[in-house]
Amino acid sequence: MREITYAEAINEAMSEEMRQDDNIIFIGEDIGVYGGAFGVSRGMLEEFGEERVRDTPITELAITGAAVGAALTGLRPIAELMFSDFMTFAMDPLVNQAAKSRFQFGGQASVPMVLRTPGGSGTGAAEQHSQSLEAWVCHVPGLKVVIPSTPYDAKGLLKTAIRDNNPVVFIEQKLLYRTKGEVPEQGDDYTIPLGVADIKRAGKDLTIVTYGRMVQRSLEVAEIFASEDVDIEVIDIRSLVPLDKECLIQSAKKTGKVVIVHEACQTGGYGGELSSVIVDSEAFFYLDAPVKRVGGLDVPIPYNPGLEAQVVPTVDSISSAVRELL
Amino acid sequence: MLLFNAILSFDILNNYRYSYRSYGQFIVGSAMKITKAKHLDMYLKMVQTRRFEEKAAKLFVQGKVHGTAHFCIGEEATGIGVCSALENDDYILQTHRGHNQGIGKNMDINLMMAEFLGKETGYCKGKGGCMHIADFSKGSLGANGIVGGGIPLAVGAALSQKYKKKDNITVGFFGDGAANEGAFHESLNLASVWKLPVLFVCTNNYYGMSTHLSKSMNITDISIRAESYGIKGMAIDGNDILKIYEETTKAKKYVMKNGPMLMVLNTYRWMGHSKSDAQAYRTKEEVDEWKAKCPIKRYREYLLNEGIATENTLSELDKQAVQDIETAVEFAENSPEPRIENIFEDVYA
Amino acid sequence: MAEAVIMPKTGMAMEEGVITEWLVKEGDTVSIGDPIVEIETDKSSMEVESDCDGTVLKILYKNGTTVPVVQTIAWIGSPGESIPAPPNEIKKEDIPAKKLMVAEKIKATPAARRVASERCLPLKDISPSGRNGEIRVADVQSTPLARRMAEAEGVDLKSVEGSGHDGKIFSSDLNRMDEDTRIPLTNIQKITGQRMLRSHTEIPSVSMDTRADVTEMLKMRRQLNENLKERITINDFVLKATALALEENPRLNSILDRDTVVIMPSINLSIAVATDRGLLVPVVKEVNKLTLRQLSGKTAALVRRGREGKLSPDDMEDGTFTVSNIGTFGITSFTPIINQPQAAILGICAIEETLKLVDEEVQPRQVMSLSISFDHRIVDGAEASVFFSRIKELLENPLVILA
Which residues of C touch A289 (CB under 8 A)? Predict the structure, then answer.
């Protein structure tokens, strides 16, 4: 094992797959010469050339639409949207075309594309460059949605996403790009299947269900409570669609207390779905407290760094929620 | 060459006016060698399209075709003319109205009709309907219910073809209304900078649903927009099937070498936008004026006058078209409905 | 054949259209393409053209009528042609009104409810410790006092054996045992005790005894059990006899609401069942409407559920009269305590072999002793006697029980 960053892990996943399969091309803004706005694709233009690593104009709709068209006709494109907030421009090709083609055409088509895009706040980029919009795409049958929290998960999941014959929205976390983690040696062609959650910390007194940037924060909370003899289980769902429902249900059954944590605004956030999955299952009869959600505040992300840090779940706010259930 | 350009500019000048003078004859004579078989094939397809649309319209008011339906009666030459100049491996992205495009690309009329009736045997297993027919085996990457939705997809398909060094192009069909969508502009731009082999074909029938071209754009010659992207653009008579066929044949060669091109086909739709359209936005006189320029009637006259086909042959083809549609309706009506048990099929691959 | 003119469906969402004006009348000749009627849809007005040549034979709806799409509105054909009869109207189905469900009003978490139900502990008797006043699972598993003491003494509750039913931990379990053996009452014992005290002090209860010759009944029972797959018990016979007697003497199937005797509409018998958790009293509903076989099935199921700890709240409610059987212990008479707010309670005692004079011969007969206690505010001795002796009569003439 060696330590690499989340960004490097993503680079490795893409590069390894592109070396093995000539049908994979990569398109996006400033991904080639510039190496990606967050440096994720450094070196890829040099290795794969202009035909396969294509810088585009600022044209999110056409980037996504072209990826769909290419995917319909034999290629396996990776399209990058520089900020997931720009998904708004890509909605028609993503939702009305990519997600629908197979079903709409009676199985004649498939759309094996990956739309990679970073989400989340914390960089001071403010309202229009800091959102977490995963709930939108989780609500479209035909799309798959993945949000990794570690370099290990990012690499394994991205490889699977690229090999998947469906459109996968791969939402990275901008504040995690520099974090490091252990990843197997190069040449180890490991993949992580979609639809499998990861119990990042096993416990028996309370379950925290979370994903993305909040995984690390939840683990911090778990450590704090460990010293108070409360053993918290932290589940990183990793894959929002398809979702590992069984893992959540069994954990809720075991501990009887559940807190759901995500950075995205609470109202209409994916946490509602997670809560329902738990409550509408056999786990209900083992719940000894209401299922709590700690989501971002229902506000746009503000510029001021103090405010920015407080509008998403903090160690304190997560700890309060945990205490309420104990 | 000069003559060719003169004809081109003549076309462009005419497009500034939205009431058309009728053309008596096709301007370009048989500069192209077209075999008799090809002529008859195109003629048959046009008549099949017209009968198909009429029948579908009838089935719609009987409640058998569900939802909404858009008919291309009057525009047959556009889809048939373009697609007749393409090969099987050339891709097309159809419009919601483009049943002529599908028929032109040799799609199976029985499967089309079954899809219109929502049956399991239809092209999309009854799940797509008239706006979403597709036949990937014939190069049709599907009809799109979103105005302009197919244009970026055409760019992507052309990207595939160029990447794999194929000797084929992609034709992205869309209407005058779509020319104002962001997708149109982004797609022409991207295709032009990447020099992709895509032929953008705009069927200009002068109305985006109920809004006349002159209210939607200051410069009503859509072909001029090509200049903004540094690509070639042309506008031709969309009711002149031979002209369309010839220009498409030339365009394909051009596009494969030089990158994208924009072709605007000026035509008219006889029926309302969809079946619920009472057509308050245009006069009966305008409709009648265009009906007089019926592309099928003109082609018929041409074929007879040039001695390419006899009245007998054409009548036989007319009858065959009627029969083909009847067969399709029978097939469709006798086909089973899709079952809810299979509803999750094809949501994911 | 005549051609139908239909109300055309011109739009996705169109369900009906209005006939604005007929442009032709019956008897007119029309050709293909002639406009024949003007209609109005939700979006616009339009003319409908004729699809065929012919004469307008019949116009079915007049101007201004709203007609559903695809429905025939006129017929065109050759004069004198017959036209089909109009289709029947499709009625909308009645949507049955949903029954309202009344929620349980005690605040308890799902886990607490589950454990309480498993242990047959009524929630209303458990002290809640949740911050919102809710009963939590720990409250069912141990008392708050026990928990506080355990925390103070640093004892892990999981290591303490609870003396309550199913291991509920009480504070006393944490103490050492002194010279006296102190056994605190379990929850069920406490509750039962309180109710017995109330019944005993509030109700002027009178007891009576009688004996019934059940020889024929036992013979009949043996016969039935040899030929049926169900096992009909002696208790089942007595229950059925009781139900019949209650039908004839409804005042015994009532409750006292201050100054009013409220006669209950159903005859639901509470049957006392001894389990290792204690005495449970589940209810068999509408016994008078059940056959002996059906009754037998229900009582067997209730007893089984009671022993397995799987009785539901529904099983325990709405009893109108109680029957308690201690005959197996050889008891010949007792004074059962009335199950408030019922009017009376029947006690089944032992069956003894007795010598009796039958047709001037001394014969061994099986005789069952029965005891009844009744609330003298609701019924007097005479009424109770009539009822009681009727039961005896039915038990001595068991064919009537089967009728």
Answer: 109, 136
